[in-house]
Design goal:
Blueprint lengths: L3 E6 L6 H13 L6 E5 L5 H11 L8 H25 L3 E5 L2 H11 L4 H12 L6 E6 L2 H11 L13 H17 L4 E5 L4 H21 L2
Parallel strand pairs: 1-3, 1-4, 2-3, 4-5
Helix pairs in contact: 1-8, 2-3, 3-4, 3-5, 4-5, 4-7
The chain binds thymidine-5'-diphosphate.
Thymidine-5'-diphosphate binds next to helix 1 and helix 4.
Length: about 220
């Protein structure tokens, strides 16, 4: 028996974290199996330690390929320790960011190349693909403004500190991925109110979970 693998993607400041918090009780009310909520980079003890290295604002010397490899390494550990065991128990996994983030941020925005980054990730995930990906779409400028407001009390992480052109490239990359795999992505306009983003996400997941239950 296999579970259902849901991922949430989007540029910085799209509102993924708040959406995840609102989706947890909504999803739990639709299912009678456990829901595993997790995130990348991180999601397991070793992977969270790699996250600290990745996001440390002091690590300005980090090479783009080192960054991509560390992300893939943390993902590997997360997949093996947490995601695959939950899916093989038939559970639902909700993951904040996955391979698409690496393809967008490291592949396109860092300029390594989307295909190259995808291939190192294939080594890490061995064919695991999300069943459905909610993509929260927001213009780079709007996302970055939101982060500035949110971060008035905390320092920005190393990736959030990148220039606006970097974040525009991230969004362009997501648009390319959506064109390639329109059946996997549900595009949600994240410039709209939190309520309307939540309603759209919930509707998409209701139908995915219904199909999942039918096939159980
Ligand atoms: P995240 O914790 O999702 O931050 P936020 O909630 O602010 O979006 O991700 C931290 C940063 O790491 C974010 O700027 C995106 C970046 N990132 C990558 O560059 N590549 C990846 O593969 C992942 C998972 C994240």
């Amino acid at each position: 028996m296999t579970g259902l693998f849901i991922t949430i993607e989007g540029p910085d400041g799209a509102g993924k974290s708040s959406l995840v918090q609102k989706l947890i009780p909504a999803i739990e009310s639709m299912i009678d199996c456990p829901l595993v909520v997790t995130r990348e980079p991180g999601g397991s003890e070793i992977a969270e330690e790699i996250r600290e290295i990745l996001l440390n604002p002091a690590h300005t010397a980090m090479d783009p390929r080192t960054e991509a490899l560390l992300l893939a390494a943390s993902r590997r550990q997360h997949v093996v320790e947490k995601i695959l065991p939950a899916l093989s128990r038939g559970e639902i996994v909700l993951c904040d960011r996955f391979v698409d983030s690496s393809v967008a941020y490291q592949g396109q925005a860092r300029g390594i190349g989307m295909e190259k980054v995808l291939s190192i990730n294939e080594f890490a995930i061995e064919g695991l693909t999300p069943d459905i990906t909610l993509y929260l779409d927001v213009e780079a400028e709007v996302g970055l403004e939101r982060i500035k407001d949110k971060n008035s009390n905390r320092t920005q992480d190393r990736l959030e500190m990148e220039a606006i052109t970097f974040h525009e490239e991230v969004r362009n990359a997501y648009q390319m991925m959506i064109e390639k795999e329109p059946e996997r992505f549900v595009v949600i306009d994240a410039a709209k109110s939190q309520d309307s983003v939540f309603d759209a996400a919930k509707k998409a997941l209701e139908s995915a979970i219904q199909d999942f239950k039918k096939n159980e």
